[in-house]
Structure formats: structure tokens, C-alpha cells
Automatic annotation (TrEMBL):
It comes from the Bacteria. The lineage of its organism: Bacteria, Bacillati, Actinomycetota, Actinomycetes, Kitasatosporales. This is Gas vesicle protein. Residues 1-27 have a biased composition (Basic and acidic residues). Residues 1-39 are annotated as: Disordered. InterPro entries: Gas-vesicle_GvpO.
Amino acid sequence: MANARNTEDSKGSQEAQDSRESRKSTENTRANKRPGPMEVLRQARGQLAELTGMEAESVSSFTQTEEGWALEVEVLELERVPDTMSLMASYQVELDPDGQLTGYRRVRRYERGRADGRRSGGQ
């Protein structure tokens, strides 16, 4: 009778350990499935294009935040001739840690051929 109990206790202990290892494996798999920076950039560009109908030309800013990712994406809003007169826009794009777009907004518009009027360094 004692051997049967020990066997059952041992079996129950092994099942609990297997269950803990399975949970750890699932958590590690989830963490490993998180997209890397290049995948996040691709996803952001694709999702923004799908929502706005405008293709991203470049990403001018890219930062990982506590909430996920923050990007500034340059898009062609209005094509003109000559090309230097085309109207461009910068969009601030926010994504969650998995690379899913959570919000975006246009932060400025400018002609492609114009130098940026904003000054950096507080000058």
C-alpha cells in the first residue's frame, strides 16, 4: 500500500513539474515571437499604408518605449511636378510591443524640396 502511495505521489509531483515546464516553455515562446526592430518597421509601414492609403517613403525616427514602439514616418501626400514641389508629411506612429499599430497622427507637412525649418539643439 505504501509503495502505491509513493508511486502516486511521485507521479503527481512529476505531472506538476511537467506543467510548470510547459508554462515556462509557452512564456518563452511568446517572448521569442515578439518581432525584432526590422519586422516592427515593416509592420508599421504596411499598417500605416493600409489605414491612410499612402505609402511610407522612409522612417526618420524609431524608438522602443515602455508601451511598445514609436516611429516617425515620412509619406508622400501629394505628388507634384517638379518632384521637389511634392507635398510630404511626417506621421507619428505608435505600436504595441508586438508591432501592432495602436495610433498615428500627422505632425507636419512640407514640400519635398524645402529644408526643415525646425531648429535642433534649442537654438
